[in-house]
Amino acid sequence: MAVRRRVVGQALAGLKQAAAGVRSSPSLGGASLELGASATAGLAAARASSNQFPWGKLSLGFAAAGLMTVAEPPSAGCTATVAADGKVASPPKGGAAPASSTHKVVFVLGGPGSGKGTQCARLVEEFGLIHFSAGDLLRAHMKSGSPEGQMVADMIKNGQIVPSHVTISLLQQAMDESGSHKFLIDGFPRNEENRGQFEKQTGIEPALVLFFDCPEEVMERRLLGRNEGRTDDNLETIRKRFKVFIDSTLPVLEHYEKLGKVARINADRPAEEIYKEAPDTPGGANFLRWLQFRVSGSTFECPSVYQLIKPIGKGAYGIVCAAIDTRTNQQVAIKKIGDIFSNPLDARRTLREIQILRHVRGHGNVITLLDLFPPSVGLNDFRDVYMVYEIMDTDLHQIIRSPQPLSEEHTQFFVYQLLRGLKYLHTGGVVHRDLKPSNLLLNGNCELRICDFGLARAEVNNQELMAAEYVVTRWYRAPELLLSCADYGAPIDMWSVGCIFAELLGRKPLFPGKDFVHQLNMICKVIGTPTAAEVAAVPSDKARSYLASMPYFPKGDMQQYFPAASPQAINLLDRLLTFDPAKRLTVEQALAHPWLAALHDPSDEPSCPQPFNSPEEAIAEPSMQQVRDGIVREMMIFNPEMRHVVGGPAAPR
Ligand SMILES: Nc1ncnc2c1ncn2[C@@H]1O[C@H](COP(=O)(O)OP(=O)(O)O)[C@@H](O)[C@H]1O
Ligand SMILES: O=c1ccn([C@@H]2O[C@H](COP(=O)(O)OP(=O)(O)O)[C@@H](O)[C@H]2O)c(=O)[nH]1
């Protein structure tokens, strides 16, 4: 049946001719929505006219995580800068510099024998950086047999510094030929002149200077034991090299220290120990792990395994960027939730979303949370949270609003997938509570994933709190929620499914109420005033008397509202939009409805194996510290090595 569904998905996509030239995004490499040419063109036009998605061919979507788009030209979008002591450089003049176009350089300095080469070899292995040793380039050059090569050989033998233009042109050539943009340059600049010339000639300022600090006698012992046949590893030259280091190289370090760019590492320890420390040095080798960007005027930080592409969404909480996970080459959407502890509700909402997404991870109709991390300040001091999701192309709200014709098959496929995802949630004891078209993300094969679990809950919960916090879109709210009944459970999601289903059929919201009274009136006009028995079952006195005061509406004929829909579709809709939550179809009943027979396959509609529970949600009023600890715990589940990498001993405080 999974195969059958895939075929249906493909057939749906194939129902329309794909829009040539509009289907794929140039920078995201082929992501597209294959609902068809008219959707493509229509969406593009709609967004162009509303000044959204100004980056042209991406107009198909990328409303990741159900968010609004960033109405900002790409030139003001995403500018890569490097993290050095938490400072973010200002964007280069003249517009966007994509992450990959800016060279990032780390200088590695230290006396001869301090272990620069040894540490660089390991950093390169872990981070995939390109390592150049100025000394190695010079030694290769001296073998060229040219007069300049001979001069270099003589100078090295004497421990002298080779003229800047020779070393810099070797470095420049090596960088150009590498095709890379992130370099570790070891043993350079040797003096202030080297430094000034390099910055002038290449326009590159180092992001960071790693300084391996080691006592002279230790370095001397190491060099004498190095045994690599170097002409300068003899006591006489070693002493000269130390002097050159002190006289000429230390001023370079002083310069960079003033700029806050030096990470000083105690190198008089076993190599293994030094290596472990390097990445934890404040503002230090963290550079190797973190990149900072300016996105829409604020800082966006991520581990350097992610290559940012562009901003794709903006919401009340912050920004979403498309990125590539360079470990997998997978495109992802990274959402920054800024300053989450300034508002207790936001903090709880974030924790809840993370916990639920991790609990239901892996179901094909629920968005996958791939990663979770703090900014480079680490687990002890973070205020922002970054969530990495699989990237999707658009959402159902965008599709419904577009002129794309939607057949009953389309609607079936969307409703089926929504129910399939919802079955997993409900069997895991999770009620979404905020289902609406913009929270249903779609990709190019019409695959649907439920997102935005900020209001989702374990079914059994503190009712008062829920009522107080309930701020979701009114239009999809079940009557029992509107009437503040205590019985909030899975049926509220089923009501929302009915509303979404109707919106797919009618291409507009069925119950776009302006306020509570209007909302209830709209509902009753369509489904009829509740019966006396239904009213009697409403626990709240106030709600009962309000219902009793309402004018009487007979039950309308749903078919009238959706003349093109099949009788079976109407039957399912009727049974979802049922006033009494006890009589409303459950998710499993809805999946078994004849209208979905072509797609239904109980053996491929998994139930969640474990009920969801959250330690924080079990507490009526978790403190901010408890919520923070919960988020730290989740971050460490996604990144177990984090306690070593960021923030030092990162056990929850
Ligand atoms: N932390 C360390 N403890 C002991 N020996 C080391 C350490 N780091 C490097 N060495 C050894 O010292 C010598 C010099 O190290 P190297 O990395 O070549 O120094 P540099 O590149 O700074 O001149 C090498 O033989 C290396 O194996
Ligand atoms: O930018 C550089 C780097 C190296 N050297 C020369 O190359 C020698 C060896 O440098 P390397 O970094 O290979 O070894 P270290 O002296 O740090 O052990 C130095 O003494 C200098 O003579 C130089 O002139 N300019």
Description:
Its cofactor is Mg(2+). One of its GO terms (biological process) is pyrimidine nucleotide biosynthetic process. InterPro entries: Adenylat/UMP-CMP_kin, Adenylat_kinase_CS, Kinase-like_dom_sf, MAP_kinase_CS, MAPK, P-loop_NTPase, Prot_kinase_dom, Protein_kinase_ATP_BS. Keywords: ATP-binding, Cytoplasm, Kinase, Magnesium, Nucleotide-binding, Nucleus, Pyrimidine biosynthesis, Serine/threonine-protein kinase, Transferase. The protein is α+β, with helices and mostly antiparallel strands and 653 residues long. It has three domains: 104-223 and 234-281, Rossmann fold (3-Layer(aba) Sandwich); 290-391 and 623-652, Phosphorylase Kinase, domain 1; 394-618, Transferase(Phosphotransferase), domain 1, CATH 1.10.510. The protein is 40% helix and 14% strand. The chain has 25 helices and 18 strands. Strand 7 and strand 8 form a beta hairpin. Residues 10-101, 279-285, 462-469 and 644-653 have low confidence and may be disordered. The protein binds adenosine-5'-diphosphate (ADP) and uridine-5'-diphosphate. The site of uridine-5'-diphosphate (UDP) has 19 residues, from helix 4 and helix 5.
What characteristics describe this protein?
elongated; 25 helices; 5-stranded antiparallel β-sheet; disordered C terminus; binds uridine-5'-diphosphate; binds adenosine-5'-diphosphate; 3 domains; 18 strands; alpha+beta; 653 residues; Phosphorylase Kinase, domain 1; ATP-binding; pyrimidine biosynthesis; 5-stranded parallel β-sheet; single chain; Rossmann fold; 14% strand; Transferase(Phosphotransferase), domain 1
